[in-house]
């Protein structure tokens, strides 16, 4: 799954929908790149059942290339399998976000 979102004064607490993973998908890696989205802004990566299943709230107040999950995130989603088609989402917090976000999510299906 790959998608890009352009934030234009996106309010804190907003949900960004990235796309759908099919039933049986197991996330194995992700990459997130952002512009400097604004002072205090954080971003999660997950789904409606767990908004930070893939990435806990991460500071995106400076331009960043978040190269993938940290050990705590891997422990949380490692081996997780989606039992239904699921929309992947991000939640913003901490302030108004302005700039570009790119998300790659790699998954496998057995």
Q: Rg to the nearest angstrom?
A: 13 Å
Which residues form runs of ≥5 with pLDDT under 50?
Answer: none
* Principal-axes shape call: globular
Number of DSSP helical runs: 1
The percent range for helix content is under 10%
Oligomer: single chain
Give the CA-CA distance, first to last residue: 17 Å
Task: List the strand order in the largest sheet.
Answer: 1-8-3-6
Which structural class should the secondary elements be placed in?
mainly beta
Give the topology string: H per helix, E per strand: EEEEEEHEE
Tell me the total number of β-strands: 8
Biggest β-sheet description:
4 strands, antiparallel
State which percent range the strand residues make up: over 45%
> On the 0-100 scale, what is the average pLDDT?
91
Description:
The protein is mainly β. It has one helix spanning 71-77; strands at 2-10, 15-21, 25-34, 42-47, 50-59, 64-66, 86-93, 97-109. It contains 1 helix and 8 strands, in the order ββββββαββ. The strands form 2 sheets. The chain has a 4-stranded antiparallel β-sheet, with no helix packed on it. A 4-stranded antiparallel β-sheet has the order 2-7-4-5. Strand 4 (42-47) and strand 5 form a beta hairpin. The longest helix is centred in the last third of the chain and has 7 residues, at 71-77. The protein starts with a strand and ends with a strand. The mean pLDDT is 91.
